[in-house]
Amino acid sequence: MSLQTSLNRLLLQFLHQLPCGFLGLLIGLNVTPVDPASVGSEVWYGKKSGKYTSVGKGDSVVYSQLYPFEGLWNYTSGIIHHVKLKGLEPGTRYYYKCGDSSIPAMSQEHYFETFPKPSPNNYPARIAVIGDLGLTSNSTSTIDHLNYNDPSMILMVGDLTYANQYLTTGGKGASCYSCAFPDAPIRETYQPRWDGWGRFMEPLTSEIPMMVIEGNHEIEPQAGGITFKSYLTRFAVPAEESGSKSNFYYSFDAGGIHFIMLGAYVDYNSTGAQFAWLKKDLQSVDRSVTPWLVAAWHSPWYNSYASHYQEFECMRLEMEELLFRYRVDIVFDGHVHAYERMNRVFNYTLDPCGPVYITVGDGGNIEKVDVDHADDPGKCPSAGDNIPEFGGVCKSNFSTGPAKGNFCWNKQPEWSAFRESSFGHGILEVVNSTYALWTWHRNQDNYKENAVGDQIYIVRQPELCMKDLKDPHQSLPYNSSTKSSSAINHLSQVEWS
């Protein structure tokens, strides 16, 4: 993907969340969508405050969430605008307004900074990573803390609003939907939560690019088998520019980092379109230009909490070898409402060439924090628990290692380096093509100077891990790890690849 199209589409993603992006909404038993063409989609922008040398014009859309059940309210959105900005230069600040100048109705001035040019010497200063955010008092603490850490980019790994924890009529949400609403004819959603969440995030997303991937709370089924309607309508991603034919998975560059965003709730089988796209995308990565390779999706493969334990084992079995073969450096996930950082691992075996998996599903959602570990006495779920909303069930007993013959470990697994049940967020600071500093910030440390919950340097050593890869396109034996665990016990402090 070219630099220009990457930058253009990155900006498109967040501009539609400005105040001029939502113009009224309707909710009730009978609703009629507004005409999206009734308000224009414009962005005026330039390099100096108050001087706009370019005007971008785009498209406007509305969507509906419909439930043909007695007593359930339907929803139709306000007008959502998507504008693609052209002619942007890397590493440059732009000032802009958005709206419709013919009414006239323009927003106040905002500004943003484009990503640095892809290069092994250029990186975003601070990349914030959040998952499972929601719209609660804990969410507010997370965003306040994140804002204090001054990010230059946000990576949102799914489960944004939790609108589906409410009835269509609103009211009080529930941490357990099926427990609170056992007679609901369908998994309802209160769509105005999306609008409230957009206003809540506006101070950040009006100035900072936010890249997103879908989670299970974005499925939001409605009549006719329609799913993900709000998510797909509200967020624009560089799918086309990255060769993807689906907004559920895509890739992009930010300086010397190539990001791969994968969909856990669409077909991930090795015979499917997503897998074919992923393989082609990985083959196209030039590690001399973007040395760091970072992947993200919602549901973790490596997770020692009882919640969602081995839930997406099928996806791991389909895709893990491919990510390992191309030496992905870091993987970010959410879904589990806690924090966990893994040692470098491949196929449940410590491997200095495997990715560092990090779970940050601790943004502050309504479903509360997860506290039970699968290795705690009496907490190991059965193989029939934790059934995914999408995909098959591939639960595995372990044939080797400390969990030999068992479904769960009887102690913290050796691949689990650090875990804590607290809300928070992470900051990734890539220093150069070798070093990156990862810091997890707990919400309770918001007002403490220089306090961190977890911090490590992640270190790349391609001369170690790339030297035996004569042809990465060739298939690897699945249990290819021959590294002894004793040789990498230091990984909980410094991660090597």
TrEMBL record:
<keyword id="KW-0732">Signal</keyword>
<feature type="signal peptide">
    <location>
        <begin position="1"/>
        <end position="36"/>
    </location>
</feature>
<keyword id="KW-0325">Glycoprotein</keyword>
<dbReference type="GO" id="GO:0003993">
    <property type="term" value="F:acid phosphatase activity"/>
</dbReference>
<dbReference type="InterPro" id="IPR008963">
    <property type="entry name" value="Purple_acid_Pase-like_N"/>
</dbReference>
<dbReference type="Pfam" id="PF16656">
    <property type="entry name" value="Pur_ac_phosph_N"/>
</dbReference>
<feature type="region of interest" description="Disordered">
    <location>
        <begin position="476"/>
        <end position="497"/>
    </location>
</feature>
<dbReference type="GO" id="GO:0046872">
    <property type="term" value="F:metal ion binding"/>
</dbReference>
<feature type="domain" description="Purple acid phosphatase N-terminal">
    <location>
        <begin position="37"/>
        <end position="114"/>
    </location>
</feature>
<dbReference type="InterPro" id="IPR015914">
    <property type="entry name" value="PAPs_N"/>
</dbReference>
<keyword id="KW-0862">Zinc</keyword>
<keyword id="KW-0378">Hydrolase</keyword>
<dbReference type="Pfam" id="PF00149">
    <property type="entry name" value="Metallophos"/>
</dbReference>
<dbReference type="InterPro" id="IPR025733">
    <property type="entry name" value="PAPs_C"/>
</dbReference>
<comment type="similarity">
    <text>Belongs to the metallophosphoesterase superfamily. Purple acid phosphatase family.</text>
</comment>
<feature type="domain" description="Purple acid phosphatase C-terminal">
    <location>
        <begin position="407"/>
        <end position="446"/>
    </location>
</feature>
<feature type="domain" description="Calcineurin-like phosphoesterase">
    <location>
        <begin position="126"/>
        <end position="339"/>
    </location>
</feature>
<dbReference type="InterPro" id="IPR039331">
    <property type="entry name" value="PAPs-like"/>
</dbReference>
<dbReference type="InterPro" id="IPR029052">
    <property type="entry name" value="Metallo-depent_PP-like"/>
</dbReference>
<dbReference type="Pfam" id="PF14008">
    <property type="entry name" value="Metallophos_C"/>
</dbReference>
<protein>
    <recommendedName>
        <fullName>Purple acid phosphatase</fullName>
        <ecNumber>3.1.3.2</ecNumber>
    </recommendedName>
</protein>
<dbReference type="InterPro" id="IPR041792">
    <property type="entry name" value="MPP_PAP"/>
</dbReference>
<dbReference type="InterPro" id="IPR004843">
    <property type="entry name" value="Calcineurin-like_PHP"/>
</dbReference>
